[in-house]
Amino acid sequence: MNKKKLNRETKKKSTLFEMYFLIFSTIIILPSIYSSKVLDPTLPTRLLALGIIVLVLFLINILRRNRVKKNLFSFTNKSIFIVYLAFVIWTFVSLLPAINPSEGLFDIAKTTLTLLLLIYIVKVLLTYENTIIVLTKSVILSSIISTTIGFYQYTLNIPGKSGYELFMALYEIKGLMAQKNQFSISLFLMLPFTAYGIFILKKYWKALSIYGTLAIFITITIIQTRSVWIATAAFLIFSIIMIGAVLIRKNGITKSKLIKASVISFSTLCSVLSISFVVLKQTGALETMEYRISSMFDMKSHDNQGRLHIWESTYNLSKDNIIMGVGAGNWKINIPPYFPYNTDIKWQNWRRPHNDFLWVLSEKGIIGLMLYSLIFLLVIYYSIVILTNEKDFHKLILTSLITSGIIGYSIIAQLTFPIERINHQVYLMIFMAIIISFHYILKKKKKYLYPNIFLKIHPYLIIIITSTLFYSSIYLNSELNMNKLFIYGNAGKWKEVITHTEKAFSKFTTIDAFSHPIYLYSGEAYIKLNKPKKAKIDLIKALQYSPTNIPTLNDLGIVSSQLNDSAKAIHYLNTAIEIYPKYEVSLFNKAEVYLRFKDYENAYIALLQCNTKTPNVSYDKYMHFIKRKMDN
C-alpha cells in the first residue's frame, strides 16, 4: 500500500469514528441520560454530557490537525457563525448589570457549547457524505425507543383516572425528559428525520420510518401538549407546501400522482386520529382532550391567563432594561415586582417566562434579541437559497422538512422554553448544521473578505471547554446535594439540611431549581432548631443573592420579630407584601408581629388585609383578642 492510499485509509477511519461518535452520543446517549437523584433530572446531567461530547470532538480534531493539511473549518467564515459568536459574547456582557452574575453561568456554558457543537456537526457533514443517512436511521431508532417508553407510561398512569387526577397523570408521561411537555417537544424535533426516512430509505428502514412517524404523531396527540399541536400543524402545512413545490419543479405532478399523494396523506391523518381516538376513549382521557382543544385559543382560560400575565410582566421588565437586559439567568430574580396585583401565586412560581424571545429580550436586552433572531433569519435565508438553487432532489426534500421543523420550533419557543433544554438545543444545532452545510456547498466559490480565525483559536478552545466542564460538575454536585437536602427536610432532620446547604452552595451555584436562594433552606432549618440568630445570618446571605425572594423576606420578618427587632420585622414583611400584595403568609405574620409588640391597631389593620374567605386557622382567635384589647 503506497503512502497516499495509507493516508486516505487513515483519514477515512478517523472521519468514520468522529461521525459515529457524534451521532451516537447526541442522538442515542444524550437523550437517555436521566437521574432522579437531582432536582431537575436532565438539565445538569445533560449539560455535563454535552461538555464531554464537545471535548471529545475537540480532541479528535486537534489530533487530526497535524495529519490533515486542508482547512476543514473554512465554513466558519459564514455570517451565521459571526452572529452566533456575537450572541455568546453579548451573553457575557449582559452580566455587567446583573444582580447575581453567577446565575448566568449556565446560560453561558450552554450557549458556548452549542455553538461549538454546531461547528463540529457542520464539519462532519461536509467531511463524510453518508452522515445524513446514518443520522436519519439513528433518529428513527431513537423515535421508536422514545415512543415505546411513552406508550408504556401512558398505559401505566392513565387508565382508571378521571377529572383533575387524569389531568395530573398526563404529566407522568415524560419519556426520559423532565416532564411531558418537554417529551412532546423532543418527539416533534424527530419528525423531519423520520419523515425524510420515508422518502429516501428502502425496505425495512422505510417501514421503520413510517412506524416512527405515526408513533410520534399518535404520542403527540394523546399526551396533549398544545404548543406542540400547533407546531406540528405548522410543520405539516409548510412541509406539504415546500415539498409540493419541489416535486412540481423537479418532476412535475400528474393528476394521478396528485390523487395518490392526497389519498396517502388523508389516510395517514385518518389513521392517526382514529388510533388516538380509540386510545383516548379506552383510557377515559377523551374528556380532557376536549377541554384542551376548546381552551387552546380561549384567552380567558386559566393556562392562557397565566401566560398572558407572565408575558406582560416580562415585557414591562424588558422595557425598563431595554439595552442590556437584567443579565443572563437573572429573569427569575428581577421579575417578581413586575407581576400584576391580581396574578395567581401559581403563576408567580413560574421559573421561566414561557417565551424564549421575551426571555432573551428581558435578560440580554434588545441587542441580544436582535442577535438571537438574526440566527434564525439567516438559517431561513439559507433555506430559501437552497430551495431556489439546489438541484439535488434529496437535499431539497430534507431542506423542506428541516425548514418546517425550524418554523415549528420557533412556534414552540414562543409558548414555552426549549432554549433551556439541552436535548432540544442539540436537535436545533443539527437542523441548522444541515442547512448551513448545504448552503456552504452551494456557495462554496464565495470569497470571504476576512481571514478564517477559527483555526488560529481552535487549540485554545480547550480552556473554554474545560471551564464549562468545571462549572457543569459543580452544578451537578449542587443539584445532588439539594435533592438530599429536600429528603432530609421532609424527614425533619434539620442538622443534615444545614450540612447539605453548605455542600450545595458555591459562588457558582447560589439559587436552586425552584428559584430560591440556597441559603434559605439552612435559614429555615435554624428556625426549626430555634436558633434565630444563626437563621438571620443565613437568610441575609440568601437575600443578597435574590433580593426579591418572598419566602426569604417572610422568614427574615419572623426571625427579626423573635430577636425583638420589630422595625426590621415589619420592614421585611412590608417588602414581601409590596412585591406580592396577596401573600397571605406575610400578611398574617405582619399582624402577629404587631400583636407581639402590643400594637393592636396596626395588628387589626393587618388582619383586615388577609383573605377572610380562606382565613388562617388563628384568624378568628386573633381578631377576637385584638377587638377586645382595642375596646378596653
Could you explain the architecture of this structure?
It is a single chain. The chain is mainly α. Helices cover 73% and strands 0% of the residues. Helix 3 (79-93) packs antiparallel against helix 4 (105-127) and helix 9 packs across helix 11 (255-283). It is globular, with a radius of gyration of 28 Å. The relative contact order is 0.10.
Describe the structure using short key phrases.
globular, 632 residues, mainly alpha
Concise overview:
By secondary structure, the protein is mostly helical.
DSSP summary, beta strand count: 0
Q: Helicity range of the residues?
A: over 70%
From the spread of the alpha carbons, the general shape counts as globular
Structural class: mainly alpha
**Beta-strand proportion:** under 5%
Q: Rounded to an integer, what's the Rg over CA atoms?
A: 28 Å
Order of helices and strands: HHHHHHHHHHHHHHHHHHHHHHHHHHHH
Mean pLDDT: 88
Describe the sheet with the most strands. Answer: none
Query: How many helices does DSSP assign?
Result: 28
pLDDT under 50 segments (min length 5)? none
SSE order and pairing:
Elements: H1 3-29, H2 43-65, H3 79-93, H4 105-127, H5 131-157, H6 163-169, H7 180-188, H8 191-200, H9 203-223, H10 226-250, H11 255-283, H12 286-294, H13 302-320, H14 331-334, H15 345-348, H16 356-389, H17 393-413, H18 422-442, H19 454-457, H20 461-490, H21 494-504, H22 519-528, H23 532-545, H24 550-562, H25 566-579, H26 584-596, H27 600-608, H28 619-631
